[in-house]
């Protein structure tokens, strides 16, 4: 069980951790803004074929599954359907999910500490 002094220090530290994590994400987004991994183009080719009405295919007529995440493919295709550039769509989704993961960590951590499951290391 956490005493009130430790709990107060822990709650004061959370915004600092969130802020520094957000700053680190922003820093790396700026540093890597020109980088796009070549493996990501695999999903984009599948998305392009979906949007062209050819189905989930790499080459028209070949039914080979070469993508790693069906959900990611569908989300990028959905943004592409609304006329987003596919590279931009994948970058937007990447940033959205990175931020969501960071926020989810702190939300779940707060819920867990509210239930008394947090035991700090001494």
Name the descriptors:
122 residues; mainly alpha; elongated
Structure, briefly:
The model has no long low-confidence stretch (mean pLDDT 82).
Task: Summarize the structure in words.
The protein is an all-alpha fold. It has helices at residues 4-31, 40-51, 70-81, 86-114. The chain has a domain at 34-114.
**Which class best fits the helix and strand makeup?**
mainly alpha
First-last Cα distance: 12 Å
The number of E-state strands comes to 0
Tell me the major beta sheet.
none
Discrete helix count: 4
Tell me the helix content.
55-70%
Low-confidence stretches: none
Shape: elongated
Provide the gyration radius in Å.
Answer: 21 Å
Please state the average pLDDT score: 82
Strand content: under 5%
* SSE arrangement, N to C: HHHH
List the helices and strands and how they pair.
Blueprint: H1 4-31, H2 40-51, H3 70-81, H4 86-114
Helix pairs in contact: 1-4, 2-3, 3-4
């Amino acid at each position: 069980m956490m005493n009130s002094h430790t709990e107060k220090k822990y709650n004061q530290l959370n915004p600092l951790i969130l802020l520094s994590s957000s700053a680190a994400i922003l820093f790396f987004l700026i540093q890597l803004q020109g980088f796009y991994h070549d493996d990501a183009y695999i999903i984009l080719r599948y998305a392009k074929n979906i949007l062209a009405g050819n189905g989930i295919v790499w080459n028209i007529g070949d039914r080979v599954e070469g993508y790693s995440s069906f959900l990611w493919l569908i989300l990028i295709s959905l943004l592409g359907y609304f006329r987003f550039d596919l590279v931009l769509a994948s970058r937007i989704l990447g940033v959205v999910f990175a931020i969501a993961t960071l926020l989810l960590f702190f939300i779940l951590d707060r819920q867990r500490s509210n239930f008394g499951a947090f035991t700090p290391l001494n």
